[in-house]
Amino acid sequence: MQYVLLIHAAESRxxxxxxxxxxxxxxxxxTYTKDLFATGRAGDCAALEGTHTATTVRVREGKRVVxxxxxxxxxxxxxxxxxxxxETEEEALAWxxxxxxxxxxxxxxRPIPAMGMPAAAPGKALDPKAHKEYLLLIYEDEGMWAxxxxxxxxxxxxxxxxxxxxxxASGHYLAGxxxxxxKKAKSVRLEGDRRVVRxxxxxxxxxxxxxxxxxxxxxxxxxxxxxxxxxxxxxxxxxxxPVMDTSAYx
Length: 250
Hints:
Blueprint: E1 2-9, H1 19-38, E2 42-47, E3 55-60, E4 63-68, E5 77-85, H2 89-98, E6 106-112, E7 132-140, H3 150-169, E8 173-178, E9 186-191, E10 194-199, E11 208-217, H4 220-227, E12 237-242
Antiparallel strand pairs: 1-5, 1-6, 2-5, 3-4, 3-12, 6-9, 7-11, 7-12, 8-11, 9-10
């Protein structure tokens, strides 16, 4: 089974950290990442820039509404994620508890449904030096799916597949996954050496995180334009976040 490990932590704590303490945390993440990838089970991962760089995008009646700031203001913010293949939920929870952020924040563990994304289509290669990575986070009320007919659901999934294939062909696509229901989510924290696991997502909100795309874009304006094309932009909210450059800790 595939799982995504979502890292929620209070980013404000970095403002009071010494340079040495900040470097130690990044080194710890570097070690964790190498250990996870050494298992051969790791998939996509990214660290995100602070929420002050976030932009939210909605499309209502054909009009695009763009606002500065993250989708949800909470005590702890989404700071990054890992995806991995695990044989059991317990294995996914064990890896979640090893993430350095579990000591100070919360790791949300969400299954990735088997439907996945369409196979990568051949497309043009964009120059990574002239582009920046952005994460497009999809928030919508997952309860709306229960109200849709089978034909309506298939039509929406068709739009997602078409959009995905278009950004694969244009070279903007890097990764993306839909997430399973928040009813299947687990939240993991470390209290001392004790692992605390709770049922449910990290935050209960009117709209839930339902998936993501990681893309290359030449600037924020292009990332916003791509986010506005995601089907959920018409019914929910897209959060656009720059991906942090962590190459120094690879």
